[in-house]
Amino acid sequence: RSAHNSCNSRTLAHLGQTLHDAGPAQATPQETMQALAKGYVNFAVDNLNLWSSIFNHRLPKESDVPDGNQLELAVLIEETINPLSKMQPDLNAEKLRKRAQTLFASVQGVVQMSIYGRFVGTPSELLEGEVEALVEAMTRGSHLAKTTQGDASQ
Length: 154
Prior knowledge:
The chain starts with a helix and ends in a 15-residue tail after the last helix. The longest helix has 23 residues, at 93-115. It has helices at 3-22, 29-46, 48-55, 67-87, 93-115, 127-139. The protein contains six helices and no strands.
């Protein structure tokens, strides 16, 4: 295992613990989602070099993400599945995982664009509020959302 993979493994474990600890015990699913997003933003901003090493490292073309890192990344997605399952109980496990990945990727993209000051990136002083608005938009009324034909839970 390379030093880079070991560092990423420790960073992913730290991020996973940060997200796990982020949600208040007696929170609604929406409050939990907001706490997870805020925890993610704060982790990225406070640990910029470590966070960047995870999400900006390019593997050689013939290489796969190491199994350990895949499992650790999956833990990050798992943190969003529980509150999402309460907001969208009609989704089967596969669709729920995909929805959680989409939500995670959306937050990740906004954070990355902001941190690196991309043209469309959110100014850093507005990042937390904009991520909050994104999560709100993606989860508001989600229990009322109709599933598309491809989202049927059967």
